[in-house]
Model the fold of this input.
Amino acid sequence: MISIIEDGRPGWENILSRAFTKTGHAYRIGITGPPGAGKSSLTNLLVKLFTSKNLKTAVIAVDPTSPFTGGALLGDRVRMRDITSLGDTYIRSMASRGSLGGLSRKTVDAADIIDAAGFDIIILETVGVGQSELDIARLADCTIVTLVPESGDSIQAMKAGLMEIADLFVLNKCDRPGSDSAYSSLKTILSIAGKEIPVIKTIASTNGGITELAEEILKLKESQFAGGVILKKRKENYNIRIRQIISEKLSERLWTSGREQYLRNSLENLIVDKLSPFEIADRIIKQFENELK
Amino acid sequence: MISIIEDGRPGWENILSRAFTKTGHAYRIGITGPPGAGKSSLTNLLVKLFTSKNLKTAVIAVDPTSPFTGGALLGDRVRMRDITSLGDTYIRSMASRGSLGGLSRKTVDAADIIDAAGFDIIILETVGVGQSELDIARLADCTIVTLVPESGDSIQAMKAGLMEIADLFVLNKCDRPGSDSAYSSLKTILSIAGKEIPVIKTIASTNGGITELAEEILKLKESQFAGGVILKKRKENYNIRIRQIISEKLSERLWTSGREQYLRNSLENLIVDKLSPFEIADRIIKQFENELK
Done:
């Protein structure tokens, strides 16, 4: 079903609308952070740990790759062999096919299918902190931002808006020099900003701190479900999702081959006509409106 | 005029359409790369160098900040004092006000105004490699991707799609250990991919390699103008821009307060009604279409 949705084959929307009525059980965890922060290793360890607790766990590994070629570079999924041997684990790799915006939508769609299939935990793992990766991570129930103890890393993370989407910070590779000062500067920034976001220190390479991390996640899950917070969060997520769907659908309808051709012609004559991008845009919108009338 | 455009005050589109007829002279340089790569320092040095060559130079510093709060964190512009004392230099800082997508459009709009005002060089400097920052950098005539000699950095850059948008790579902080191997691995990756993109080594802190970088930029500029490549590139950029404008305008028209309210109500009843996001989206689009008829 995920493949049908990914390819946009006939009936994909129906599948999703039907699956939707069966969603709501799975807890969705988004993992994001700069490249090299160890997100894949943490994901692997969490999967093993959740599975050992009899929680049916799935991973959606999101690799936006290039917005231009669509091809994954060195995107090995070798590590996956490590966890696919575990019983009830489902792993899916998703890459962008042209549109980055589309990727975040399809990823959430895939999560709906997995949710409807009865999984307990879905981990959405992204490769970096691009906009579409942030979109994916924040469309989860719980967003984990992974950082490493390198100078300025935490400040840069805050600049990139990660503080606003994080429910949990992980400071990984805490065997590296400077991890203590990185930890305290992260705590300081959070306290200045008035944010009570837990920070967990881990060393993924030696399994350090993973039990604490998993416990913190399950604690958060419990409190979100208990207080009805989860419902509020999910409504916000649906809000974003519905807007994305509308914007994609309108764009699909507008960009008929006729209007694509009109745009190409306008661009050819741009230098001669001296029509501004705004004037060309207005003409295309007018055409679209006239067609709807 | 840039402020009028930034705020969306009455007449902003007219200003842009009129300015557009006077654009085309300025060479637009986009500088992007991961946080901490030294983009600001390189920008400063390039401004000084171009100015010393009697090229009227402007900088648009783009700081997307948080998509949620819209507030710049620690976004100091102290360094700016260093170059504002130079004669014909214009510096403008632009931040996102809510919509990240909008930021890339407004930045290009501002560049049009500066171009029409008779500047020779416009540097568009971004703080990271988020999607909107990539959008800004690639809407330039020449896109410079700045990296540092850290392990895996170049591979991660390629994953993020930077190879496809780069006209020029800068390997900054080349006084750091591992810079030689980083340089050769970058060259190797580019050669495997069949890309002939120059790589310039710099040490911004000691002004090292800046003359070579500026020369390479001006060489590229000359060859682009001579071969008509610039026209092709600019048409591609207008193509992207026009699509952005259309999508924003449609979205503005669709999201009236009535439909915002309808969406809020639908979200409130989501759990009871079990209407999927797709079904809600369809209903809202149908309302919009009926209104246009």
Notes: Chain A touches chain B through 71 residues (CB under 8 Å). The longest helix of chain A spans residues 229-254. The radius of gyration of chain A is 22 Å. Strands of chain A lie at 27-32, 57-63, 90-95, 121-126, 142-147, 168-171, 199-201.
